[in-house]
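User: Hey, my collaborator sent me this sequence without any context and asked if I could get a structure. I don't really work with proteins. Can you help?
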Amino acid sequence: MSNLLKDKFKGTLFGQAIGDALGLGTEFMTKAEVKRYYPDGLADYSQIVQDCHRARWRKGDWTDDTDMTMCIVQAIIDDRELRPLSVARNFKQWFRHVPMGIGRHTCNALSIGDYTEKPEMVAEKVWEMSGKRSAANGGVMRTSVIGLLGENVEKYAAEICRLTHADPRCVGSCAIVSLMVHSLVYKDEILPIETLVKIGNRYDKRIEPYLRMSWENSLDALVLDDESTMGYTLKTMSAGLWSLYHCSSFEDGLLAVANAGGDADTNGAVAGSLLGARFGYENIPERFIKGLARGNVLEEKAESLLSVLRN
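Assistant: No problem. I've predicted the 3D structure and written it out in structure-token form, which is a compact way to encode the shape of the chain:
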């Protein structure tokens, strides 16, 4: 495995965690609130306000987004391959410890007793109970690691998404982000928007407008802080892709997304993973890496995963 490949591999995992940890600082805020709490913009973990929501985490710690990514990472390390049922068992074990920040849709799925035996069936039922309207971003927030696999990326992205999220918009957004990570890491190429549109249309026609927004519009057009739509999988996907298409560094892309407010930890996790895959670990500002509360844990998991996947 080349040094460039290793750098991008590690950049993806650290980018995810950093985006999650920094985005927590503006999670659930409107842009006006972001401006009030961070007049010059949020740019470092040390600035994160310690209100009743954020005080539950240490500054620089990640949330449920990266916790669930680590559930996938650990399953791959333990099995030396990706087995969806192993991932489901790890999700359930994590859930039993009452994790902070878990989304309602994911919580509903993991709460059901026979989840580990039939996770896809459970996820389908939870979706049906929502009137087939729930398309939350709890699947796409954890999908970056799937892009690091050497093959069958789209297949596995769909399978891991469906462990909790059955809506085709969720599945399609996971496939798109995973395939983009894979292309950036293994080919050093940004997939063109028309390629992504073709992928998205295989799942749901509602994906295309959000793909085109990521390419054609400003980040403001996504209105990430709209209370009624924050947490929508297609908005999170689009925000991550926007940072990739329009920003020239890891820092510029992540700060733009984090300071837009809304479901900023998840938007940041997706944007951070894509930017890390593009620019690599060496181009992530040192303060983001050193300030990460569980950076030593992530370093260890990254090395173990890298060892498994290169054999």
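In plain terms: The CA atoms of residues 18 and 261 lie 16 Å apart. You can pass these tokens on to your collaborator as they are.
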